[in-house]
Design a protein that fits this description.
This protein is an alpha+beta fold. Helix content is 23%, strand content 51%.
Length: 106
């Protein structure tokens, strides 16, 4: 009936949310706020293409970096020296997983 359909839908949403949380929890960005350089660490078992974008608050891509993640622990430096002071979004995409993290530039 209706109740079982609602329960199944909620269950699917919970699974998707927990998978997204797991991906987000595998990402570390520091220092935040940043001055000239930002470090991004991604620690998960997935391998393959990894796209990292720095976006301004209007959605304009300020930096795009495409990487090939071949190890469980992946660490990269992102240049932020050319960004003006303000709020930016770090958009990280690996396969069908995606996370967006807010970053401050001093």
């Amino acid at each position: 009936g209706l109740l079982s359909t609602v329960t199944e839908a909620a269950f699917v949403i919970n699974i998707i949310t927990s998978l997204e949380d797991a991906f987000a929890n595998s990402i570390l960005i520091y220092p935040n706020p940043s001055d000239d350089l930002l470090f991004l660490e991604l620690n998960n078992k997935a391998r393959g293409e990894l796209d990292i974008r720095i976006l301004d608050t209007s959605g304009k891509i300020m930096h795009l970096q495409q990487n090939l993640k071949q190890t469980e622990m992946f660490k990269i430096q992102l240049p932020t020296h050319n960004l003006k002071q303000g709020v930016y979004l770090i958009d990280i995409q690996q396969g069908d997983q995606r996370s967006i993290i807010r970053m401050m530039k001093n």
